[in-house]
Amino acid sequence: MAEDFKRSPAVARNISDIKIEDVRVRIVGTIIDKDESTIALDDGTGKIDVTFKEPVKEDVNTLVRVFGKAVPTDSGFELEGEIIQDMSGLDMDLYKQSISI
Length: 101
Prior knowledge:
The protein is mainly β. It has 1 helix and 6 strands, in the order E-E-E-E-E-E-H.
């Protein structure tokens, strides 16, 4: 029988609040730059590069939610992206109120 595999939950974080002990995080922000499989994301508290294994279809200036593994670098963190979701219909003011509760 195969061993059960349990994935660490993705913790909701602002980019500026990512900690060294965070394994997986989820961030809501705007794509400010894009390469084929790498995006630069800005959430208003900071900027972070997110690299995916597949090409990213979302465009610059799109609001997205990204799930990924936090990887420490000399200048902060980068993410190994796992999931990207278009969040264009999200009311950011309401979202920020809900996460501050």
